[in-house]
Structure formats: C-alpha cells, structure tokens
Amino acid sequence: MTLDTLTGQRVALVGFGVENRALGQLLRARDISFAVCDARPADSGLKSSWPSVVAWHTGPSYLDELTSYDVLVRTPGISPLHPRLQQAAARGVRITTQMQLFFATCPCPVIGVTGTKGKGTTTMLLAALLEAGQSRRIHVGGNMGEPPIALLDSIHSADLALLEMSSFQLQDLPYSPQTALVLSVTQDHLDYHVTREEYVAAKRNIVAHQHPEDLLISNADCPTAQTFKDYSPAQHWSFSTKSAVEAGAWSTDQRIWMRLPDAPPIEICDRAHLSLPGTHNLENACAAVAAAAAFGVKPASIAQTLSDFRGLPHRLQHVGQQAEIDYYNDSLATTPDATIAAVRALEQPIILIAGGASKKADFAHLAQVITRTSVHGVLLLGEEGPRIGEALTASNYAGRRHLCASMEEAVAEAVEWARAGDAILLSPACASFGMFSDYKERGECFKRACGLAES
Fold first, then answer.
1. Are 244 and 217 in contact (CB under 8 A)?
2. Pair (222, 266) in one structural domain
3. What contacts 265, CB < 8 A, 6 or more positions away?
4. Cα(214)–Cα(229) distance, rounded to whole angstroms?
5. Which of 261, 269, 255 minimizes the C-alpha distance to 238?
6. Which of 169, 249, 405, 420 could tie 289 with a disulfide, CB 3.0–4.6 Å?
C-alpha cells in the first residue's frame, strides 16, 4: 500500500501525535481525505488548524468507529495487538502505519538502525560519517528527528535514507531496510510488549524481509543480536569492542579497526581520538564505522569524523561546570541499561538523579551497578522513584538517597551533597511522561534547575 493507493479510500489516522500529524500534512497536500481517532479531546484550536479532517473521534470512545473506514493508519504508540484494531482487521479493514507507507513509497535505499540503547547516537554518528565521506544526500529520521514520512517529498533515488527504528515502528512492518544495523538487544518497553520475546520478535522485523543482496551488521558481543542473522538471507557483517571480526569494525589494543570482506584489517585511529566518553559509545562508534565502511567511506574521513563528533543533546551531554562540579544531562536514558552505561562512562564520583514514568523495567541490575560504582548519592523522581529505592535497599546501597517531588528539588539537593570534583548526572532509567511531555523537556528542566540553560 502506497500513499497514492489511499486516494478514494475512507482513511482514519489512529492516534494524532507527531508521526500521524506529519502524515496528515502529506495527505492534505495530496488532497487525500482522512479522519482522526485520538484519545485526547480535540480542542477548537486543533480542529481549526486541520479544517480538511472529515471527522474527529476523540476522547474515551475514540476507537468506536474503526470499522467505518477502509484503511486505518496506526500510530506507533498503539500496539497492533490492540483488541479494537484486531477486531477491525478481522472485519476486513486494512491497517498500516506511516513507516509502512514510507517504505512502500521511498525511492532510495534505506539504512535502518535498531537496538535497546545507543540508536540515536549511532544514527547521528553514522549520518556524520556518510555526509563527510560521500556525495550522496543523507536524509535522517525515524524514532528521532523527522518522521520518515515527512522526508518523502525531498528524497530522490540517488539519495540514502537513514532511520532510527523502534520496536513500535518495526512490530508489524512488512519491509526491511536494505542495510540493517542491529545494536545490543536486551529488553525495554514491557509496558507495551507483553514479553521480552515479543519485544525481540518486533525488533527482528528489521531483517525479516531482507534479500540476499542486502546487508545485516550486528553486534558480535550481544548473543541476541547475533541471532538476527538466522532470520535474514542478507550478507552478514559484525562489530565488536572485544575481538576482531571477519568483516565490519572492532576495537582492540586501544585502537579502532575496520575490515572489508576477504581483505586485511585497516587501522582507523586510536581510541583516544573518539570524543564520546564510555565503553557504550565505543560500541556505538564501531557500529557506525562498520556501516560507513560498507558504503565506501575512507578510513581517513572516518577518523576525522570520530574526532569531531560531539554526540547528541540529552545523551550524556556535558552541559557545564560550576564550583568544580560537572553537570551531565542524560535525559535520553529511558532504560536501566542506558543509565548503567552512563554511570560506567564517568570516572569521577557521581550524584545520580533517576526515576520517572513506568516502563515496567527491572531495576535490580541498575541498583547493583550503582552500589559497586562511584555513585555516592541518588535523588529519586516520579512513580518509579520508590521502586528504584527498593532495589537499592535490596542491593545494600550505603550511599545517600532521597525521594524528590520535582526536578528543582532534586538538583538543589544534589548541589547540597556535591563536593568539588563530583558529577551531578541526570540519567533517569525511566520514561519522562507524567512529570514532563518528553525527554527533551525533562533535560531542559534539569539544565534550568542547574542554572545552565542556554539563553
């Protein structure tokens, strides 16, 4: 199903967030009519800015009219296993997503990046490597940045599309990118996926529809990621931070290497040239180097870009220093594994601000890492704050801790506790919703509370 096939169909966008609003703009430009089904009440301002919407189904009953339409475009935040969607499908209603429409319509090759953590950093580093190393136009979108559907009108066949892809976007996707980059796959979003097995199966769609001429690059250090090759006929490359690989990229002996198939290894640079801190970012770098090598980017260009790349906002971002205390904004860390990586990346004593909305994560391992590392104070936020506190108690954590009602209180307490040479680290291990609209607002709130917001 392509965008053009929606003409003349009764179409409803189920969920009207960022992705489906981008699709709505595209449909409106093509004079394709559509309705909106959204759990939030539609205020008059929203309706007046979308006068072409043929019907609004909002509030608690927003899913009551699904069988009145020929095609439903599901937002990623609503599971394809939702009973009301399943009922509509059983009655012949076709269900698609903006990601499916993008793949069906996109005229150029696609590189997809997925994994439990590191997707955003790897995607943006790979974009920088490709932009510096070849003349093709690179369009970046997906689970971060522009929704893919918003890129379509600017993409030509000679370009490359580079997408960060979440399990929500992959779960019912009947297409796979020509190049799939699979980072470590652990577990996440158990508030959305029924089991870890369902979560991993959703991720596997990034390779399930590949062809023999396509390419899969997977994390050689992650057993789950390595199983993806059993579901794809594509060529297989790897990356590793522990040992050399036959084709791809790796880091050993304090250096970063790459190798093309049936060729000798090529040294890229010393690990010290990588500007991003932490072992997890070394892993992200090796993943991006492997993909860049597959697209012919030269070693010298790769080395220069690795040195120049400064990372993403809200991802272990050093936002300033005051009174010999460093402040790090890692608001993008919405899983325990991401927070573990941040804690391990910083070598100085840490006061950690963590907690937020539930994703039904297990905090036991995070608590164990906090107990064994240089974290000497933990400020806890949100509905998951008490659960993290319980995990710390079970791990015999001896440092200070306090449950806070706001980010401002957490930062003020952290400043009281901090000593010269410490780092105050926001790395929540949880979703932002409830207290904040998204991770960006949470990160900006942290910076304001620290007195380090940009003017």
1. no
2. yes
3. 244, 257, 258, 259
4. 12
5. 261
6. 249
**Which residues 6+ apart lie within 8 Å of 84 measured at CB?**
63, 66
Residue 78 burial (10 A CB sphere; 0-12, 13-18, 19+) = buried
Q: What distance lies between CA 204 and its chain's CA centroid?
A: 16
Q: DSSP characters for 18-32?
A: HHHHHHHHHHHHTT-
Distances (CA, A) of 233 to 103, 192, 208, 214: 19, 29, 9, 8
Tens digits of residue pLDDT in 56-88:
999 999 999 999 999 999 998 888 889 999 999
Does residue 445 share a domain with residue 300?
A: no
Residue 214 domain boundaries:
106-308
Whether residue 342 lies inside any domain: the answer is yes
Reported as a single tens digit per residue, the pLDDT across 90-119 is 999 999 999 999 999 999 999 999 998 888
Q: Where are the beta strands (DSSP E) in 282-399?
A: 317-322, 325-329, 350-355, 375-381
CB atoms within 10 A of CB 197: 10
Total residues found in the chain within this entry: 455
